[in-house]
Amino acid sequence: MSFNFAVQKLHAFGSYGEFSIGSGGSQVRAQYLLTKIRPGQQGHWENQLASQMAPWREVFRLEELSFDELIQRDLDDSRVAHDLIPYLLGETGQHARFFPPVLAVLVPKREGPSGIAPRYPTPHTEGERLSFGDLFEFERAVIEGVVSPLGVLRYNPQRSAIVIVDGQHRAMAMLALHRQINKSWGADPFAPYYSHIQVDPSAVAHIELPVCIIFFPDLHDGRPEFKDRGIDLVSVCREIFIVVNRQAKQVSKSRELLLDDEDFAAFMMRRTLTRFKDRKESAPDVARIYSFAFGDSEADNGGQVVAGQLEFCSAVALHKMHAAAGFGLPAAFSLTRSADITDGRNVRNPTRPAEILTGVGGVALQSISRRSAKTHRPEDVSLIADRIGDLTDRIMLPLFDRLRPYAAHNQAARQLLEALSDPTAMADPVQAKCRSLLFDGAGNRSVFEEHVARLREKIDELRTQAQPVPPHLMNQLTYSESVTRALQERETWVKTSRSFILFNIDEQNFLSRDKAAVEADVREVRARGKAIFDALSTQAFQLGYLMAVLSHAELLLPDAASYDERLAATEFASALYLAGLNAFFAVAGARHRTMSGYVAEPRARAFEAAQSGFRGLLAAGNVRELNEKQWEFFRYVVLEIVHSRMASAAVTAVLGDPENSAHAARFRTALPAVLDAIEKLRTRYFDAAVSTAQKTPEFKREVDMITMSARAGGKTDEEVRALVDEAVAAKRKETLDVCREHLRSSLGRIESAAQVLRRLAPVSGPPSAGQVGDQGELDEPPTTASAISLEVAVAADQLQNAAVDDGSVGG
Prior knowledge:
By secondary structure, this protein is of the alpha+beta class. It has 28 helices and twelve strands. β7 and β8 form a beta hairpin. The protein has four domains: about 10-250, no CATH class; about 255-385, no CATH class; about 410-500; about 660-760 and about 780-805, no CATH class. The chain has helices spanning about 45-50, 55-60, 75-90, 170-180, 225-230, 235-245, 255-260, 265-275, 315-325, 350-355, 380-400, 405-420, 425, 430-440, 440-465, 470-500, 505-510, 515-535, 540-555, 565-585, 615-620, 630-640, 650-655, 660-695, 695-710, 715-745, 755-760, 785-805; strands spanning about 10-20, 30-35, 55, 100-110, 125, 130, 135-145, 145-155, 160-165, 210-215, 290-295, 315. The chain starts with 9 loop residues before the first strand and ends in a 6-residue tail after the last helix. About 50% of the residues lie in helices and about 10% in strands. It comes from Craurococcus roseus.
């Protein structure tokens, strides 16, 4: 009797070849075996290989993957089930049923948490056999004494994984058929997408899928030079994915950033996302990874607002923040000058990183190009990304955690996650699916919605053709519609709950009142909360807040500031601005049982375009949409709030902290310049509103009527012009009154620079001309009579010229 205790390996046969990745000292060999898989129950090696292959999501748990390991698009199971599998089964009328090869990489599983090990074990060679211990071995076949182009791969399915790098949808079509035949789905949550597929083994007996299995013989523990250069299995897999997809279906912007190894801002973005992802159990109101969109959803491809779901920011937005903070042109950090950070040309300043890193040991570069990461040593890339990325993180992480609206949303989302994680909910297929769709990435949601649409389309098509609808299709649709309703209920609950938290409403007592009144009030509370959350979920607000803090921090820095001084100034400005902004959203201690308190105050509607408030001021200047280009407006809004009387106590508390004494002194020194900038920006938006009001068709008709009536009454040209001047001046005053009311509704009052100085940087002496005491209010910035006359004359002249040009006024 003999025993074999050696590791049992499975076989794959095919032809082999080789190519390389990289160049020079960073060049890595890639060897491959071109083989095949086949669905079925015969137990052949092709069937075994089909059982071992898997998309990335099945080999490793998504929540345990680092962002450097997230190299694939989300799988669109709906597309696989409704398009690709019918094609393979001959249901689409196509006679040729063939897919081009898919690419897969043979990688070692990492011990402990899921993921992949960065390198193979050191190999040894025996003749034509290259063996990587008990992981796998590759052997070239010798036929009649000659090395042939054929080879065999023997792999240990317990320690290795064959992960699909490209062609995962084609591969999933084949794997789904294989699993349906063998009933081998197990507890796979994606199995329901394929439950309607009924297939006999004979129907797939002649279907094969070519597979190219790649491994990298140089990336092992015995080659430390690659480790020193930061080259490992993750990086080369990502490189392959980028190369093979450049001419394929466009990869979403966020997925592209997850793969980018050249852009320092992409490194910083991934670092920030990883920090959110790696958060363990902590306070229930802190931000978590599910609040950031980083999948292949439509929102990644241009959407500016993440509204209606659990995400309030995205990978794309974080990338823009890091690019601006680390590589913005100097003008971007001026409060009044313009260098639009959403234009890529303005966030490629190579001198700013060197300025930021002044005094950092190990970095002695005069300039650092944003897209030069591949030209630096891995340890230098890590150091640069960590230090510069910290500037953005010291501002945005506290904001996402502690700004009251975000904290309210975080708390409500966390409560929902805990409810859906309860064993009872997890045992319910509908609720379990809701948990996956809401908390496992935006890609899951878009695939599910597409699947539902396809089911409805298929059923409608059958009914149109007067054909019976198979029960399995109706069962799937019934289940999917149940999930959709449950999703809507859960999302409505989050929106309602976060609004109750934000407005400090006692939910139980609020809802216990008269039902008719409660329903209307709940809709109102939810709508007012939604307007706030939608505004704060824009890239415009988030970029505007970031740049407000960074711009102010620049004013606090001494000449040739060191990195540590810059980071300290940034932390101080971040704490001060967050405190000031939270004062705007502050509530009284008592919880409300009716529509009273913050929810009933004008500031609660400051972000509704149709109401008097900040959005109203922006709309008055003829800007209706909140896209990233409005970040400068939100920077202005943040400046107004932080320096308002409403925020005075919170800001003063930060300034009065003994640990902040040096920064507070610099803050007060810079305050006159900041207040001057606020007045200039305020005037800029007021002027935009005046210009818009004077160009409306209604006002132009009013001027036409004044002109025609005056001429009909025998008025001279000079008298006509005087009447037009009067109308223009009246329209200007009317518009300025409306603008000031927008600010009063949001801030409570408008103060002069002298009033703000007396609060935040007390000085002696009487107020200057055009200003009033602490109890009064500055109605309008001081403007000379000649300046007003000139403005009125120019506007009136433009209106009269327009009237003559269109023929409405005679010569």
